[in-house]
Design a protein that fits this description.
Elements lengths: L1 H23 L6 H6 L9 H13 L5 H9 L2 H10 L1 E5 L4 E5 L3 E5 L5 E5 L11 E4 L9 H5 L4 E5 L8 E2 L4 E5 L7 H16 L7 E5 L3 H6 L1 H7 L5 E2 L8 E5 L2 E3 L20 H13 L16 E5 L10 H11 L2 E5 L1 H5 L1 H9 L3 E5 L15 E6 L4 H14 L3 E6 L7 H4 L5 H4 L1 H6 L2 H9 L8 H14 L1
Parallel strand pairs: 4-6, 7-11, 8-9, 8-12, 9-10, 13-14, 13-15, 15-16, 16-17
Antiparallel strand pairs: 1-2, 2-12, 3-4, 3-11, 5-6
Bound molecules: 2-acetamido-2-deoxy-beta-D-glucopyranose (3 copies).
One 2-acetamido-2-deoxy-beta-D-glucopyranose binds next to helix 19.
Amino acid sequence: MAKDSKKLALLVGFLLLPLIYALILRCNAGSILIWRFQLREPLRNMDDDLKIRRKEDGEIETDFRSFLLNRLAKGKAQEELRQNGIACLQNPDSDICITTASISIPISTTTTNTVYLTGNQKLRQNDDIITLYPYPARKQDLVAMERTSPVRLIADSASPSCDVMHRVPAVIFSTGGFAGNFFHDINDLLIPLFLTTSLLKSKVRLVLTDYQPWWVHKYQNFVSQISDYDVIPVPAYAGQEKVHCFPGAIIGLNYHGHLSINQSKAPTNLSIVDFRNFLHNSLFSNSHKLSTTTNSNERPLMVLISRRNSRTLLNEKELINLAEEIGFEVEIATPKKMSNMESFSKLLYTCRVLIGVHGAGLTNMVFLPPGAVLIQVVPWGLNWVSKAYYGKPAREMGFEYLEYKVEVRESSLSEKYSMDDQVIKDPLSMHLKGYHISKPIYIDGQNLRLNLTRFRGTLEKALDLA
Ligand SMILES: *[C@@H]1O[C@H](CO)[C@@H](O)[C@H](O)[C@H]1NC(C)=O
Ligand SMILES: *[C@@H]1O[C@H](CO)[C@@H](O)[C@H](O)[C@H]1NC(C)=O
Ligand SMILES: *[C@@H]1O[C@H](CO)[C@@H](O)[C@H](O)[C@H]1NC(C)=O
């Protein structure tokens, strides 16, 4: 009996861990502030852009309706879309509506986001209005949703007349939520954007609600591969209030889980490796000098993600000396260096091994060249999350993955707690007490001093693989 209840507790624990840990990523939201005050640059005047593009629009042959119907919508949703001209899918993490009929969006300088369904779309259960929050992945997260403006879809209503007619469908999503945090940008926005729209071959117009100019600026290379057109910001800049009309739309984005794409759900068998290639193409295709093949005389480059506030490597210097002695050239990635995505991504694309303690910085693995090695240093009590959050995605993205799990003596927790303390003996039971209990201990409360005798083995393995 007692055994059973322990088993049950364990099971519940494993089910809860993803939820608990979803919250952990928030502690990285500090970087939002950094970005918020950078990179303000007015977009090109939209009207000029429209004039230039109008001619091209006429030549578009992509049949987006067929794509929406036959690739994006599946099963029941496909039937619904065929019958009603619109289908809305409610997933645990994200909502998305797809319409193959016309819409109009009055875009003003306020944040009220209304989409009029002007093509006789029929909403389910005779609803006249559907409201959704088009920031993917974080539907369950109240903080993210507070930062995301709702979009209302209204059927059967007198809609304002069009100022601008677009020939390509709209893709409407929010850059509110946790946009600005690098992990969330990749996981919540770029991967969903890729998997939802890339097969439309840039013949889409992005409408960004909760628009933040720096976001588009930071990811402009990627965004310009997704869409041939400048984005439409919501709210509009003063003087650019217009009613935009589209022949169809996707409102919200699909999301398949942590840094992943589920090939069997994705249109035309897209995978996370396709995402990696797409991202690399968008960032590196014009960089002539980047070469991923190392000259045999050169020492392979290892980039070390250096953490400063928590989960810090206390003997980082000694570790670097060891890596150099073994045969690597080592670059240290400080938070400042990482904040310049353009130069940092290029550095990573020429590197063979990325190493770091578990944390959002490891998201930078998306810039590694195929076949590179990720070494994750796993702090005490964070085995499960380390594997689920970076280990598994690393393998799926086509990287070699090595894990160095610290022993208790390598963690500063061993100085704070006795060996028979629950914190040391049974981290799972601490996680079960709640995130507010476990976060200060395992996430924020430990630094690491690696046993270099033992760590040498991992480095040598990485050198072999590199
Ligand atoms: C991928 O999607 C399919 C179909 O929806 C589902 O059966 C499968 O469990 C998913 N795989 C993963 C790893 O989530
Ligand atoms: C999708 O890709 C997988 C692996 O890349 C392959 O085994 C499978 O046959 C593909 N399915 C389709 C329908 O192309
Ligand atoms: C470091 O690791 C080596 C090899 O695993 C082991 O023999 C040694 O006892 C460890 N040192 C400490 C201080 O734990």
